[in-house]
């Protein structure tokens, strides 16, 4: 029986990052992964392949809609779907093989197979039991299903099947206008499908800042995405390579829609199937989430859990940070993770990115705030890049000027948001950002201008009267 200081179960962005940090800290580390490649959902069937297709399809959109304006004239490019798939595979391979290389360099054993925890301090992989002083559970999540809808990953697909369809569908339905639904809907719409997104809720992106959701709805509509709110999918039926979707509308009426393909994107659920025996000592709540402390300790001594299987947002970077925090705790270091400063991104175009609280949340809490907003239409760099949709919205405490939230919709918002994350992590005031020198011309100047606008001092726009 091999013994380790740490066995990490799962090699997604939570697990592999945690394993590398454990090894760096001198702990004898193994990582269990049952799939053929390392990297979990994110690298194999999630963040990375979807970004490869989003990038490729964005280039197509630019060529079709924006090249001529910049004097680039040619016949419209055609999509070679097989080649685009190869590009995506190449991107995945580069990433997953990179993790394998890092495991070797850090002397991390990859235990190939599916793990279970038969008892405290033990991990069973295949027919071999390994002992470990510490166990880190990082088994991630899987797509949620809807009752009455049979997913076959051909006609009715999850986010996994949606990345490997055999051809570009003519008509595509997406259930759920959440992060996954909007990103996948965007890919297929740019590739030429007619996309209808059905969302049960009456409000679009109801948890994000209202200014952002309003602008996103406007931009996506302009691109031709048909987002139908208050549309609850109740059942589906597949026949003759088509899918009939029964929808209950907000006004109580029902209708049936017929499409080629259906993507179910109604959330994800923690994946712990077959993992925990009754003797493991690890408690799981009614929704399948492993119960943990703020520092990711489960109820079983020496067992930690991180990422999508525990409370908090299901985001790869949140999982990675928890993985590093737990490795540091095991190695006896002092460490901390700031759950109030986790950025979110939706990779449509324009991208949506935010950190901290929304204007609506802060008002509901009775916090007096100041808001600075700067549109990309007034940014020289955005104009030069022909990418002027959206804005930066910065919210600061009216009394202390401390930044409480930043909400961006625009090109490269995923990169820009890091500036606000760093500022908030360091407890900056809006004035700190306003006094900082930003490179010109850059999209980031919009953050500078939004910070200036908090007190009505933006340079490249007419300032509105200061809000109370
Ligand atoms: P989500 O919770 O963001 O959205 C699901 C949507 O489906 C909700 O708006 C819900 O109201 C709707 N819905 C549920 N049942 C319905 C029905 N019967 N008919 C119509 N609509 C229905 O979930 P998701 O988009 O599947 O994403 C899952 C998780 O993965 C999220 O936690 C997300 O953060 C994470 N993720 C993040 C990224 C990113 O950071 N860019 C990308 C992909 C996934």
Draw up the topology in text.
Elements: E1 3-9, H1 15-24, E2 29-33, H2 40-45, H3 47-65, H4 81-105, E3 109-112, E4 115-116, E5 122-125, E6 128-137, E7 141-143, E8 156-157, H5 159-162, E9 171-175, H6 179-190, E10 194-198, H7 210-222, E11 226-228, E12 231-239, E13 242-249, E14 254-259, E15 261-264, E16 268-270, E17 303-305, H8 316-330, E18 344-346, E19 351-356, H9 359-364, E20 369-375, H10 380-384, E21 391-397, E22 403-410, H11 413-425, H12 430-434, H13 445-453
Parallel strand pairs: 1-2, 1-6, 2-3, 6-17, 8-15, 9-10, 9-15, 10-11
Antiparallel strand pairs: 4-5, 5-6, 7-16, 12-13, 13-14, 18-19, 19-22, 20-21, 21-22
Nicotinamide-adenine-dinucleotide binds at residues 146, 175-181, 183, 198-201, 232-233, 265-268, 313-315, 345-347.
Structure description:
This protein is of the alpha/beta class and 468 residues long. Helix content is 30%, strand content 24%. The strands form 5 sheets. Strands 1, 2, 3, 4, 5, 6 and 17 form a 7-stranded mixed sheet that branches. Strand 5 and strand 6 form a beta hairpin. The longest helix is centred in the first third of the chain and has 25 residues. The radius of gyration is 24 Å and the shape is globular. The mean pLDDT is 96. The site of nicotinamide-adenine-dinucleotide (NAD) has 25 residues, from helix 6, strand 12 and strand 18.
């Amino acid at each position: 029986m091999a013994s380790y200081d740490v066995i990490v179960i799962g090699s997604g962005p939570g697990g592999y990052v945690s394993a590398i940090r454990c090894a760096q800290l001198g702990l004898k580390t193994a990582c269990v992964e049952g799939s053929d490649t390392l990297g979990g959902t994110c690298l194999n069937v999630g963040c990375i392949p979807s970004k490869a297709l989003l990038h490729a399809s964005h280039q197509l959109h630019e060529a079709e809609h924006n090249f001529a304006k910049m004097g680039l004239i040619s016949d419209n490019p055609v999509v070679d779907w097989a080649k685009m798939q190869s590009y995506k595979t190449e991107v995945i391979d580069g990433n997953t093989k990179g993790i394998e290389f890092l495991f070797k360099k850090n002397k991390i054993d990859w235990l190939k197979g599916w793990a279970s925890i038969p008892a405290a301090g033990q991990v069973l992989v295949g027919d071999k039991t390994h002992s470990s002083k510490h166990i880190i559970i990082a088994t991630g999540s899987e797509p949620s299903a809807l009752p009455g809808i049979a997913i076959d990953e051909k006609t009715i697909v999850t986010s996994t099947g949606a990345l490997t369809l055999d051809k570009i569908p003519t008509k595509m339905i997406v259930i759920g206008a959440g992060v996954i639904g909007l990103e996948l809907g965007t890919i297929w719409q740019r590739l030429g499908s007619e996309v209808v997104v059905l969302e049960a809720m009456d409000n679009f992106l109801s948890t994000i800042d209202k200014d952002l959701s309003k602008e996103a709805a406007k931009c996506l509509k302009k691109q031709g995405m048909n987002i139908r709110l208050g549309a609850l999918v109740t059942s589906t039926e597949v026949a003759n390579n088509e899918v009939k979707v029964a929808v209950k509308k907000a006004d109580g009426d029902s209708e049936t829609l017929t499409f080629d393909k259906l993507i179910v994107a109604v959330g994800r659920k923690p994946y712990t199937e077959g993992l925990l025996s009754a003797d493991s000592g690890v408690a799981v709540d009614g929704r399948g989430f492993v119960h943990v402390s703020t520092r990711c300790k489960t109820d079983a001594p020496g067992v930690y859990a991180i990422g999508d299987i525990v409370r908090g947002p299901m985001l790869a970077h949140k999982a990675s940070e928890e993985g590093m925090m737990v490795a540091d705790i095991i190695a006896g270091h002092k460490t901390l993770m700031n759950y109030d400063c986790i950025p979110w991104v939706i990779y449509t175009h324009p991208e949506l990115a935010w950190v901290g609280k929304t204007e609506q949340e802060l008002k509901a809490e009775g916090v007096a705030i100041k808001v600075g907003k700067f549109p990309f239409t007034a940014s020289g760099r955005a104009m030069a890049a022909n990418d002027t949709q959206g804005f930066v919205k910065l919210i600061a405490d009216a009394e202390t000027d401390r930044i409480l939230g930043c909400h961006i919709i625009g090109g490269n918002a995923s990169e820009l948001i890091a500036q606000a994350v760093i500022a908030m992590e360091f407890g900056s005031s809006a004035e700190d950002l306003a006094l900082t020198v930003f490179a010109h011309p850059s999209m980031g100047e919009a953050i500078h201008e939004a910070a200036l606008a908090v007190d009505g001092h933006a340079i490249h726009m007419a300032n509105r009267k200061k809000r109370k």
